[in-house]
Amino acid sequence: MSDEKRGVRRVFDEIAADFARTRQRPWPEIEAFVEDVPGGDVALDIGCGNGRNVPLLVGACSRVVGVDFSRELLAIARTDNPDAAFVCGDGTHLPITAGVADVALCVAVLHHLPSTAERAALLDELHRVLAPGGRALLSVWAIEHSAFDGERDEIRANDNDTYVPWTDHDDGTTHDRFYHIFERDELRTLLEASPLGVERLDLLNGNYYARLVAPEG
Ligand SMILES: C[S@@+](CC[C@H](N)C(=O)[O-])C[C@H]1O[C@@H](n2cnc3c(N)ncnc32)[C@H](O)[C@@H]1O
C-alpha cells in the first residue's frame, strides 16, 4: 500500500468517532438510487465508512456486506448495523467473491485513491464483484463543489490532487485527507475505460454521481 493510501486510512481511523457523528443519514441521491434499482440477493457498500447507507441496502437486498479499510469506522458500522456483515479490505483488492453483487454503492471513496492506476483498479474490482446486470452507484467530489470556490486554479495546477482538512468538533485538531478532485471529462474517460456501462453521470450538489451497470454475460 502506498504511503498516501496508508495516510488516508490513518486519518479515517483517527477521525472515525467524530466523522460518524456527522454522517448519520444517507444523502437523498443514494436513497433515490436504492429506490430505483430492482434489489436482489446481495448488496455491497464499498468504502462503507460508519455504515450510514447500509440500512437502505438492508431494505433492498437479503444480504448486505460493507467493506472499508478503516477498522475504527468498521467497528462503528458493525455496532450500528447488526443485520449486515462487514469486512476490512482495500477497494482495489476487494475480499469479495466475483459476480456476487446485485447492487453496489461506492460513495465518496474513489477520490481518496492517489493515482489513476489505483482508481482504475477500484473500477475493475467493482466490475469483478458485480453480477451480470448488477447495478452500482458511484460518487466523487466534483471540481464544481463550492468547497473549492477560490481554489480551483490551484487544485488544477496540482493535477487535481489536494488535501482537505477535517477539523475535530471536540478538540479542534486538524487532519489532512488526500483527495483527487474530479473533472467531468476525466471521470467519464475513467468510467468508459472500464467494462461497466455508464447509464447516467450527473452533477448534483457538488458531487458526480455515476449509475453503472455490469455487462450481461
Ligand atoms: C468520505 S468517506 C465515505 C463513507 C461512506 N461511503 C459514506 O457515504 O458515508 C470515505 C470512506 O472510504 C474509505 N476508503 C478510502 N479509501 C479506501 C480504500 N482504498 N479501500 C477501502 N476503503 C477506503 C474510508 O476509510 C472512508 O470510510
From TrEMBL:
Q: What is this protein called?
A: Methyltransferase domain-containing protein
| Listed Pfam families | Methyltransf_11
Record domain Methyltransferase type: where: 44-137
- A GO MF label: S-adenosylmethionine-dependent methyltransferase activity
- Keywords noted in UniProt: Methyltransferase, Transferase
Q: Which InterPro entries match?
A: AlkB_tRNA_MeTrf/Diox, Methyltransf_11, SAM-dependent_MTases_sf
According to the record, the segments passing through the membrane are none
PANTHER family with a match to the protein in the record: ALKYLATED DNA REPAIR PROTEIN ALKB HOMOLOG 8 (PTHR13069:SF21)
Q: Biological process (GO) annotations?
A: methylation; tRNA modification
